[in-house]
Amino acid sequence: MTFKIITDSTADLNEDWANQQDIDILGLTITLDGKDYPTVGTDRITSDVLLESMQNGGQPTTSQVNVGQFEAAFRKYAEEKQSVLYLAFSSLFSGTYQSSLIARDLVLEDYPDACIEIVDTRAAAGGEGYLSILAAQMRDQGASLEEVKAAVSHIIPRLRTYFLVDDLYHLMRGGRLSKSSALLGSLVNIKPLLWLDAEGKLVPLAKLRGRKKGMKEMVNRALQDVETNTAIVAYANDEAGAESLKAQLLESPSISEVLMMPLGPVISAHVGPNTLAIFTIGHEPR
């Protein structure tokens, strides 16, 4: 019997594609100018609207997927006797993962035989999306839930995440980066390059003078250790920059495919306009 894959809106998956692949997406919430917006569904806030607001001084905040949302989703599949694999937004960035654990315990009280497996991806955006795509591919090729969970867990330490941001202020404002680290990006024309370290923390990696140098350095770093020939490029309202990254990656014999993924509103709210990102999988743990 197949199983249901669930992730959340920080994975930045295209909703139509996710529906076709039988992946459920649970949405975090954006609060902007005193109003709450969903990040999943036809009435969701788009990244374009959010980023335009931020460029005009808007300061959005985000809220985790709550216990009730998880309980409703898990309970539905427990009643249908369908197993669930939930790939969660990094526990270092959100309480979403913890909410899912609480909800699972509540559902198991009523359905003790239910199978609800939860994986802390220690990832976000295209990294979380990459893991979700691979999980769906493995499931469709006949892998069991246990096999997919084990494979994803093996990939997580080798998943490489690089972000080139215009301004570290948004990460500092949202509590994802310390004030002292944020000062690194306050100099004129300095473009901070960040990555997720071995513990899954977002930390400054380098400071480059100029965007082109920053993009080149990000590509070089991403190509230092590549196991799979697919890379993901993500972007916040800079599609031209993303296309440039794609072209540079495809010049390497290590990469034969680059998937383009616009950053969704939750991640955009924290990294800000003009952010670029690359996600690859290496041979060795990061």
Shape: globular
Number of strands: 13
Q: What class would the helix/strand composition place it in?
A: alpha/beta
| Largest β-sheet summary | 6 strands, mixed
Strand content: 15-25%
Q: Helix count, per DSSP? A: 11
Using the CA coordinates, give the radius of gyration.
19 Å
Mean pLDDT, all residues: 92
Strand order of the largest sheet: 10-9-8-13-11-12
The end-to-end distance, rounded to whole angstroms, is 35 Å
**Strand-and-helix sequence, N→C?**
EHEEEHEHEHEHHEHHEEHEHEHE
Unreliable residue stretches = none
Kindly state the percentage of residues in helix.
Answer: 25-40%
Question: Could you explain the architecture of this structure?
Answer:
It is built from 11 helices and 13 strands. It is of the alpha/beta class and 286 residues long. It has a 6-stranded mixed β-sheet, sandwiched between helices. Strands 2-1-6-7 form a 4-stranded parallel β-sheet, with helices on both faces. Helix 2 runs parallel beside helix 11 and helix 5 (125-140) runs antiparallel to helix 6 (145-155). The protein starts with a strand and ends in a 5-residue tail after the last strand.
Comma- or semicolon-separated keywords:
single chain, 286 residues, alpha/beta, 11 helices, globular
